[in-house]
Design goal:
Chain A: It comes from Kribbella antibiotica. Chain A: One of its GO terms (biological process) is methylation. Chain A: This is Methyltransferase domain-containing protein. The complex is a heterodimer of chains A (225) and B (197). Chain A has six helices and eleven strands. By secondary structure, chain A is of the alpha/beta class. Chain A has helices at residues 17-30, 44-62, 83-90, 102-110, 147-159, 189-196; strands at 2-6, 9-14, 73-77, 94-99, 116-120, 132-137, 161-172, 178-181, 184-186, 201-208, 216-223. Chain A has one domain: Rossmann fold (3-Layer(aba) Sandwich), CATH 3.40.50. A seven-stranded mixed sheet of chain A has the order 5-4-3-6-7-11-10, sandwiched between helices. The longest helix of chain A is centred in the first third of the chain and has 19 residues, at 44-62. Chain B folds into two domains: 3-118, Rossmann fold (3-Layer(aba) Sandwich); 133-177. Chain B contains five helices and eight strands; from the N terminus they run αββββαββββααα. In chain B, a hairpin with a 7-residue loop joins β5 and β6 (105-111). Chain B is extended and about 80 Å long. The chains are: A alpha/beta (225), B alpha/beta (197). The interface between A and B is medium-sized, with 25 and 24 residues. Bound molecules: S-adenosylmethionine. S-adenosylmethionine binds at residues 20, 24, 37, 78-80, 83-84, 99-101, 104, 122-123, 138-140, 143-144, 153 of chain A.
Chain lengths: 225, 197
């Protein structure tokens, strides 16, 4: 774990990439179905609502059209126990879920339905031989503490989106970076914009979660070249 | 997808289907049905093809055309169809298999002007079309070429896997149909390492 002092000020401990994997695998094993990937500060019932509200926002962005025999191809990047991914599969889409937690991926596979497949992979490494109509990453990128890994992860997700397709990343609606704890670091929205516009993804809008005043929401980008 | 579901996803209630299918299809009850295009954005011209040559050549720029094709999706006459779309100045914006009609496929197209300077969004129709120039065009061509390569090789890989699966099934069937007395010996022969490669 990174740890240090600047003068007499203690720098917040931060998880490295391997510690992040251990942290999430442990959390997924220890906490309930929704709290482990949702907001551990709420109970399972509040998390039910939290998940349902965000699913609604996600559908507002992706749209309600579906075609089981010629499905949209969607990537859930950092899928956790798969609540969103399983919903997408039930809606008739073809969904790939990736995560670094072995326990979470095992559970996803056990509960898989429809056109879905789940893989143990970091965001920065997933490179299948096809493109996606939609790539989304819910409450994951602000858990990547290392800036270089965050950047590599965002760029790799963006590279998987086809022309006209969407990339949805979740972060705070803010114009400054901020480290909140050993495993939470939010980035200013303009950082996504300056990273992604040169590679063809144009910011469309920010869709706030709108759940109990959370400053979090979906930054929606579309591939225009 | 059901045909009327597709129509309802394109047109608001009270929108107009310009029916040039020559069919008895019952369009959604809340739509108007007309024989020629009204001067309104909320219209869709439905055309049923029996051959790709029937593609409408008289659509005006901006007009949305719903093509209904008689083939199942995996049997589309791809070459002639795409050639006809391009000749008619039609940009396909989405295509769907149809579940509830004798038409196998619906393609939604938009008549673009001959300069074809824009690309219509396929996921979010509320977005304005983007320019089809420079890097966007480059991206389209690059996706087309590289995805084509992957698809071709995947088809071969799939054929190889299917052939292997069929061979194994045959072996299994042979084992299962062998009379009990002889099965041990023959089973051993069939499952020898030579047979499995
Ligand atoms: C707060 S949870 C969210 C899970 C899921 N998206 C949801 O909303 O239910 C964060 C997830 O990100 C995963 N994760 C963290 N860093 C990752 C990385 N670099 N690559 C892939 N997954 C990662 C964790 O294992 C964890 O499952």
């Amino acid at each position: 774990m990174f740890y240090g002092y600047v003068g007499r000020v203690k720098i917040v401990d931060q998880l490295g990439a391997n510690e992040t994997i251990e942290h999430w695998d442990r959390r997924h094993r220890q906490l309930g179905a929704l709290r482990s990937g949702g907001d551990a500060g709420y109970d399972e019932f509040s998390n039910e609502i939290f998940y349902a509200v965000r699913l609604g926002r996600l559908l507002d962005i992706i749209g309600d059209r579906t075609e089981y025999s010629a499905p949209l191809r969607i990537l859930d990047a950092g899928c956790g126990k798969g609540w969103f991914a399983h919903s997408m599969a039930r809606f008739g889409h073809a969904i790939d879920g990736i995560d670094v937690s072995e326990h979470a991926i095992d559970l996803c596979r056990a509960n898989a339905t429809g056109h879905s497949s789940f893989h143990l992979s970091p965001l920065a490494d997933w490179q299948p031989p096809y493109l996606y109509d939609v790539v989304y990453s819910i409450d994951v990128l602000f858990h990547i503490m290392d800036d270089a890994l965050w950047e590599a992860s965002v760029l790799n997700l963006a590279a998987q989106v086809r022309l006209g397709g969407l990339l949805l990343v979740v972060d705070h609606e803010s114009d400054v970076d901020r480290t909140w704890s050993f495993y939470q670091r939010t980035r200013a929205l303009h950082r996504y914009q300056s990273l992604l516009e040169p590679v063809g993804l144009q910011v469309d809008r920010f869709v706030p979660y709108g759940f109990r005043g959370a400053p979090t929401g979906f930054l929606v980008l579309q591939r225009v070249f | 997808m059901q045909l009327n579901e597709l129509v309802r996803s394109w047109l608001p209630e009270g929108g107009t289907v310009v029916d040039r299918t020559g069919s008895e299809h019952a369009w959604p009850p809340l739509m108007k049905v007309a024989e020629s295009a009204p001067a309104s954005d909320d219209a869709l011209t439905a055309v049923a093809l029996t051959a790709v040559g029937d593609l409408p050549a008289d659509a005006v720029p901006g007009e949305v055309v719903l093509l209904l094709l008689p083939w199942p999706p995996h049997e589309l006459p791809l070459g002639p169809l795409i050639q006809a779309l391009v000749s008619a100045g039609l940009q396909a914006t989405e295509a769907h298999p149809l579940a509830d009609t004798n038409w196998g496929v619906a393609v939604i197209c938009r008549r673009v002007d001959d300069a074809v300077q824009e690309i219509h969004s396929y996921l979010d129709r509320s977005r304005k079309p983007g320019p089809l120039t420079g890097r966007t065009l480059l991206r389209l061509v690059d996706e087309h070429i590289v995805e084509g390569l992957v698809r071709r090789t995947q088809e071969l890989a799939l054929e190889a896997v299917t052939a292997e699966r069929d061979a194994l099934r045959k072996q299994l069937a042979a084992i299962n149909t062998t009379p009990p007395a002889a099965s041990a010996t023959e089973g051993e022969v069939l499952l020898s390492s030579d047979d499995l490669g």
